[in-house]
Structures are given as C-alpha cells and as structure tokens.
Amino acid sequence: MKHLARRTLALLSAAGVLAVSACSDSSTGPTPNSTMTQQEALAVASGIATEIGKASSASTTSVNVACTNGGKISGSANVTSNVNSAGTGSITGSLTVTPEACKVSNGTKLITVGGQLTFDFSVTLNQNALVSEVVHGKGNLTWDDGNCNIDYTVTVSPTTGHGSISGTFCGATLNATV
Fold first, then answer.
1. Are 156 and 148 in contact (CB under 8 A)?
2. Is the pLDDT confidence value at 66 over 50?
3. What are the angstrom distances between the C-alpha of 163 and each of 1, 118, 128, 158?
4. Single pTM value for the model
5. Which site from 17, 58, 75, 177 is most exposed, i.e. has the minimal number of CB atoms within 10 Å?
6. Cβ(47)–Cβ(76) under 8 Å?
7. What does DSSP assign to residue 21?
C-alpha cells in the first residue's frame, strides 16, 4: 500500500510536467498577464514537480518539504482505500499543495513560485495489479510577475501502456495521447 501511495504521488508530480510538455509547442502560451515564456513555464513546472516529488517518501497525510533553492511546499493528502484482502478495489484521494516562495530554475535564473494546486486521483486494482489511474490537477501558479490557472486530467491504462491528457494549462488547451 505504501509503495502504491509513493507511485501515485510520483504520477501526480509527473502529470504536471506532462501537461506543460504537451502544450510546449502551443502558440497560445501563458495567459496575457504573464511574462513567462512557454520554455520558462516548462522549466518551472518541472521544478515544482521535482519539489512535490520529494513528498513521495512521506508516509503521513501532511506535506512539508523545503525547496532545493529556497522556499517550501506544504499541504495535505487524503487517501481512502476500498481494496479487499484479495487486492481488488479502488483507492481514491487528493493532494493539495501550496508552493510558498519556492524557488525553481528556468535554466537561466531562479523564479519564485507560489499558488495552490490540488490533485484528485483514483486508482483501480485487480488482484494487486494496477488496472487504471486517473489524476485531475487544478489550481493556479503564481510567480514574480505573472500567474496562470491549470485544470487538466491525465488517464493512464497500464494494460495498454498509454494514457491521455486533456484540459488547460496556463492558457494552452491540452488534448493528447501519452
């Protein structure tokens, strides 16, 4: 169970990176009240995902990790398991995190990131084998001179090795197979 929780937190972190990378060729770019380029947004999302990923080793419902370059990410997780003794059932939950002056690199400079992100997830198991996983990310990111909203869903089917992503990320429409 602990291994699955770590895997799910890792997927939640990766989902943010996938969302930005899926829109990195988009001409819409970040919203008009932003001065962050698509390349910078990808670097920032990747940096925040890395910082959130540090929480994957936590076994508590509270998240409080120091960001590598300063600041922190805090939040909480709520997980409900409806898995029977045969390893069949579902696990649902949510992870809400707040980057607080979390400094991440865009490749050339440090950007101070804030905001609030919520990831709702559901996992279906059959005899301890992963059948499906769905993550819905929503919230907002703020940085030194801009902000943007996110609202996307990632669906993964381990049996096919593929998934999909749809929604919006910083003004870009997402609709891709991953």
1. no
2. yes
3. 23, 20, 20, 8
4. 0.69
5. 177
6. no
7. H
